[in-house]
Amino acid sequence: MPDFLAQDREWSAAMRAALAGDATAYQRLLTELAPFLRKICLKACARAGLQASDVEDAVQETLLAIHLKRHTWDPEQALTPWLAAIARNKMIDAARRRGRRAETDIADFEDVLAAPADGEAIEREMERQGALRLLDQLSVKQREAIEAVSIRGESLRDAAKTLGVSEGALRVSVHRGLKALAELYRRMNG
Amino acid sequence: MVEDETMKTEDLIAALAADNDTKSAPMSRTFALDLGLGFLVSSLFFFVFLGLRPTFFSSLDEPRFLFKFLFSLTLAVTGLVLAWRLSRPGVDPGLARRAVFLAPVLVIVASLVEMAVVPSSQWEARMIGHNAVHCLTLIPFMSLAPLAGLFLALRHGAPSDPHRAGAAAALASAGLAAFLYAANCPDDSPFFVAVWYMIATSIVVALGWFAGGRLLRW
Hints:
Structural class of chain A: mainly alpha
Oligomer: heterodimer
Helix content of chain B: over 70%
Structural class of chain B: mainly alpha
Number of domains of chain B: 1
Strand content of chain A: under 5%
Mean pLDDT of chain A: 81
Shape of chain B: elongated
Low-confidence stretches of chain A: 101-117
Number of helices of chain B: 9
Number of strands of chain B: 0
Largest sheet of chain B: none
């Protein structure tokens, strides 16, 4: 499948740029990956009998894992198998943790998968539901740091000025906050 | 900014991009450092409390004595290669999965040779040896520090199969511990290795399997 290969080459190149320090390429890559991961998570959630509302959680958890484990990708290898393995791992965990909820709306999933035109609207809806509730479980410092650079979209330098901390300290808070978020996800409903 | 208290996926992505400059140590360095430290701790324990056996240097030309090191090193290397390959998502361990049977095959072959060259009346004595209890306690004990090091390295990685990764790390650690112990142990027959070294290794591998399931999830 040449399409798949071309896409993987593009993603791998973006990831290499990101690892070399290009944050813009990184943000663009993750934004492109989100729908791809959403598709994987949607199918996996349907198979595991998880609810539609779990899908966006799984996407976010997978994105966090991709971020925190990106040093485990070998730049000589294709990116997609690595991505898929991380997504699979997160989905297995999610299924195990939350337990199989039988009798869920698998039919809804099938509709989604069968009708890509509708898919977008449902994805938007899921994204709305998937708002990250876990943020308020972080320490105040970490939450403020992450909110500043994410929801308010400030640069590290601006956010540091607003919060009255050094850029280095803010960087550490953001990183620790993301690690803590990943940990909260792991324990969610566990 | 309608819902100030919530974060959507695109917001999360912005936060991840802002964190792009925070780099993690490369896997190879973590493996080398953590395993190296663990092995150093076990080596210190060995030289302080056990030491080389008195006949160590005079035994260096005996094939049976040398075989113990070949066997232990094979365990260590095959276990380490498998643990390394299992430490990253989406990597097919390939041949490394089957390579872990190399050491057991070696000791079986060596035992067959021993059967051919040693009269059967001596088999039992050689198998029981002098220090089976030492072997069964010291190999697992000395494998704990390298195992802890490898577990730290694996936690830095992202093993898709925590049980197998833990068992592979345990195999490597047991091999390193056996390598140290072999220099002290007075029993050199492949029979002894086939029974007691293998049981000691199995204990560690079982420990690694269970501990991996608990500690290597991410």
